[in-house]
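Researcher: Here's a chain I'd like modeled. Treat it as a single chain, no partners, no ligands.
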Amino acid sequence: MNFRPDDSKSKTDATREILPAPTGWFSVYQLAAVRGYTESRLLEKLIRDYGSEHPDWFKEYKDTKGHKRLHVHPDLYKKFDYNEQLERDYGDV
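Model: Modeled as a single isolated chain. Structure tokens:
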């Protein structure tokens, strides 16, 4: 059976093992629940505000139940915390 280079890459990506999240990373689902957002609304906000500048802050990992979920870097969580405080104090930022 012959594989083109593109075929082998897609098969490798498809079979890549999803690892557990490193310490400090939060799933978008988890963060949304804590903050009272819907998961999709929070994800839109995070990607709009930080996605192009910090694409490495968004990665798929296993959650504590073994489900594949998008997780965010601890530095993004810290920035989000700060923005939430600004919103409470001064309105939408």
